[in-house]
Automatic annotation (TrEMBL):
Name of the protein: SusD/RagB family nutrient-binding outer membrane lipoprotein
SUPFAM superfamilies xrefs: TPR-like
Pfam families per UniProt: SusD-like_2
PROSITE patterns the UniProt entry points to: PROKAR_LIPOPROTEIN
InterPro entries cross-referenced by the UniProt entry: SusD-like_2, TPR-like_helical_dom_sf
Length: 490
């Protein structure tokens, strides 16, 4: 009996002790920290942001084709897009919160850059998106954010980039940086250069909000910009688990994926050595033992043709090139750029041609072409002989690469060369440039036209219905279609 009373008393004491404790404290996991240094978040954000984006943009941009089945991207029949960028933005939000806790302006600045980058990607895919009320679920329990008009999103992106550039402080180090190793100057160059990319995207517009696009471009172009290959915003891959090239070991390359004639014929017409880097010999040319630099050894399939017909003709006859095997056999391959020196120079060449800046378009254009050829000289080891200084200069001396004629003709030359540089680099940029300029000419079935956007994800229909419907009514008369034209193209 005494033992029973003793145990009862112990239980009451224990119960009283727990009842006096804060239940929130009891629910905390002692093995899971609630705070972290922003440098740990930065590394993961960079690794995800700079990854190769894969083949969908290559199908849409007439660089590759599929012969085993109908590719929705090749035949312009895609549907819903993804809001996955918001998953990365949640980490960015946490990095900014931790940076504010530590009073570190540099991680706040980098956070603003990554916000600008990912909101740009989201808005380009869909149009209006949640922006001002986005990412507030954890702090304010706002789980159904309203959609901002695309113009307001772009205005916010430009403001955040200005803030990021102003916040960066060379007096405070940046750790955890796998892109620039904490180099403040290179980060400033990237932030300013990316702002130029955002502005050139709006070439159909004269203003964004109350800001003149041409005047803003001129202002930002006077700042420090990416000015060499050493400044490239690129991720270099390592032959280690989790750090390998994004297309490494992808089975689709080895089966029914081939090069598109749009891309191959352009390179053949220009006698462009980048063809050797991106494509393999046709099977028949390989059996003949033709050398790497024989342009007749390469051929592509028309992306507008029925895939089964291409299989029955070009593939069975051994007269079509596959993607160069290094893209799926090499675990490191060349770095992936989200913004490169050559792209910045192409942007400046276009702006000069449009009269936005008072610099030499020809110089910018030649800098861009040369830089991309030198990039492959550095990173495509088997092909360096075709990218020596003599070969590069001969390529630049071609009459078709002179910027002459009307503004439209000059823009066609600039954008076409910019297009060539986009094979597994910068994701959907090549397709957006086509939508914006019409260059180069794409082949597609006559019954279809290239889509302007993606359909909103199903998750938004299920979880944010009212705000999504309001956004669709404001933009497209309630129609969530892939051929509805968003603000940036109007």
């Amino acid at each position: 009996m005494k033992k029973n009373i003793y145990y009862i008393v112990l239980c009451l004491i224990a119960l009283g002790t727990y009842s006096c404790q804060d239940l929130d404290e009891l629910n905390k996991n002692p093995n899971k920290g609630e705070q972290t240094h922003p440098e740990l978040l930065l590394t993961d954000i960079q690794a995800k942001t700079f990854q190769v984006e894969g083949t969908p943009a290559l199908y849409a941009s007439r660089m590759i084709i599929q012969t085993g089945e109908e590719s929705s991207y090749q035949y312009y029949k895609w549907g819903s897009g993804s809001f996955n960028n918001y998953n990365i933005l949640r980490q960015v939000t946490k990095m900014i919160e931790e940076a504010k806790r530590l009073d570190d302006p540099n991680y706040i600045a980098l956070g603003k850059f990554f916000r600008a980058y990912h909101f740009y990607q989201l808005s380009m895919k869909f149009g209006d998106i949640p922006y001002t009320e986005a990412l507030q679920g954890e702090s304010t329990a706002l789980y159904q954010p309203k959609y901002d008009r695309q113009e307001n999103v772009f205005e916010g992106i430009l403001n955040e980039l200005d803030e990021a550039e102003a916040l960066l402080s060379p007096e405070i180090s940046i750790s955890g940086d796998i892109i620039y190793n904490g180099n403040h100057t290179k980060w400033k160059k990237l932030i300013n250069s990316f702002q130029l990319k955002v502005l050139i995207t709006l070439s159909h517009k004269t203003t964004v909000g109350s800001t003149s696009i041409a005047d803003k471009f001129n202002q930002v172009a006077s700042r420090a910009l990416i000015s060499s290959l050493e400044d490239n915003a690129q991720l270099e891959f390592q032959d280690q688990l989790g750090s390998r090239y994004g297309e490494f070991n992808s089975s689709s390359y080895g089966s029914s994926m081939y090069m598109a004639s749009t891309y191959v014929d352009l390179l053949k017409d220009l006698q462009d050595p980048r063809l050797f880097v991106v494509a393999e010999h046709t099977a028949s040319a390989a059996s003949e033992g033709l050398p790497v630099n024989d342009f007749t050894a390469y051929n592509g399939g028309n992306p507008a043709d029925n895939y089964a017909e291409v299989q029955e003709t070009l593939v069975k006859n051994g007269n079509i090139s596959k993607v160069n095997r290094r893209y799926y056999k090499d675990p490191t391959n060349e770095p992936h750029n989200i913004l490169s020196y050559w792209e910045v120079e192409f942007i400046l060449a276009e702006a000069a041609t449009r009269g936005w800046i008072n610099t030499n378009a020809v110089t910018h254009f030649q800098n861009a072409v040369r830089a991309n050829l030198m990039f492959y000289q550095l990173h495509a080891e088997r092909y360096t002989d075709y990218f020596n200084e003599t070969e590069i200069q001969n390529y630049l001396n071609q009459p078709s690469l002179t910027l002459e004629g009307s503004v439209e003709e000059q823009l066609e030359t600039i954008i076409t060369q910019k297009y060539i540089t986009g094979f597994l680099q910068t994701g959907w940029r090549i397709y957006y440039d086509y939508l914006r300029t019409g260059f180069p000419e794409f082949q597609y079935p006559q019954s279809l036209t290239p889509p302007y956007r993606f359909v909103y994800p199903n998750s938004e229909y299920n979880n944010n219905t009212i705000n999504l419907e309001a956004a669709l009514n404001a933009q497209f008369g309630g129609n969530d279609g892939i051929r509805q034209q968003p603000w940036w193209l109007q």
